[in-house]
Write a structure and sequence with these properties.
This protein is α/β, with parallel strands linked by helices and about 300 residues long. About 35% of the residues lie in helices and about 20% in strands.
Length: about 300
């Protein structure tokens, strides 16, 4: 089976933890590198959380520490993910360490030295990816596509119109969206429909699934939904798209990122006759997503 080589760029984060867990247990994916970025919490915590997750899942994947601040504005969202970013579960101290290269340099080296193109999967603010494109624009040809969780065409979760990952570094998002790379935007329009709660986890917990127990513990502290009705699996949707694109309705659009003013971070669909620049997920089969989530969960500890 030919695997899909990917880089996960992340800011764990509760829903990032779920996405990383799923990705590390998908046999079709070859995770070459995990890079961290400031977002849900600061870079120290997101990096430590990534290492703790790899220890928990017993996976040996290189981790590179990335950008400490957005390009122009410092911000992070601990009010949604708790003080640590993954409150609610007592993770063991990590047995992993970051590699010596900065995340941007680690991605550069990987792209330059890999024989085939690599897919980049950002599930946090796009600071690392924007820096890569600014410093090494010739490497665009080595990127197969960018499948990102971020944005919305129907209202956001921050200042009204903006989604957090784009709002946290709109200037970086603008660079990525205008890069002419094949960008697939998995935004709130679909991720808000991807819900996992106590009902979906209960059967796995009864079977002694330790990952389900961990998910249940940290999801209780996630302020984007509730366990009775389901918490929102934003970032896992990017992983689901890689393996099950038929789960999504996707349309080509021209999307502009607003970088200033009260709507900063908004991903605005432009209806003028402009060349499209992004493939946008506009709908998801929620039942199929839940089925896929539980199928992968059953493969875990």
């Amino acid at each position: 089976m030919k695997k899909i080589p990917i880089i996960i760029d992340t800011d764990p984060g509760i829903d990032d933890a779920a996405a990383i867990g799923l990705a590390t247990h998908c046999e079709e994916l070859d995770i070459k590198l995990i890079t961290t970025v400031t977002g849900n919490v600061d870079i120290n915590k997101t990096t430590e959380n990534a290492l703790k997750l790899l220890t928990f899942f017993d996976k040996d994947i290189p981790v590179a520490r990335g950008m400490e601040t957005p390009l122009l504005q410092p911000v992070y969202g601990s009010e949604v993910h708790g003080e640590s970013g993954m409150d609610g579960f007592d993770f063991k101290a990590s047995t992993h360490s970051v590699i010596k290269e900065h995340a941007v340099e680690a991605i550069r080296q990987l792209l330059e030295n890999h024989d085939e193109k690599i897919t980049i999967v950002p599930i946090g603010p796009l600071t690392n990816i924007a820096m890569l494109l600014l410093l090494y624009p010739k490497l665009k040809s080595k990127i197969d596509k960018i499948v990102l969780m971020g944005g919305s065409l129907s209202g956001g979760n921050m200042n009204g119109p903006a989604e957090f990952n784009i709002w946290a570094d709109p200037h970086a998002a603008k660079i990525v969206f205008e890069s002419e790379i094949d960008v697939i935007m998995i935004g709130l329009d679909v991720t808000n429909q991807a819900l996992i709660g106590e009902e979906e986890l209960s059967a796995a917990i009864k079977r002694g699934n330790k990952t389900a127990e961990m998910f249940n513990a940290i999801f209780q502290h996630y302020r984007d939904g509730d366990m009775e009705n389901g918490v929102v699996m934003h970032d896992s949707c990017a992983i689901a798209y890689l393996l099950n694109p038929e789960m999504f309705t996707v349309e080509r659009k021209h999307v502009k990122v607003v970088t200033s003013g009260p709507a900063s971070g908004m991903t605005m669909e432009m209806f003028e006759e402009l060349e499209t620049n992004v493939s946008v997920a506009t709908d998801i089969d929620s039942a199929l997503f839940q089925e896929w989530f539980i199928t992968i969960l059953d493969k875990m500890l």
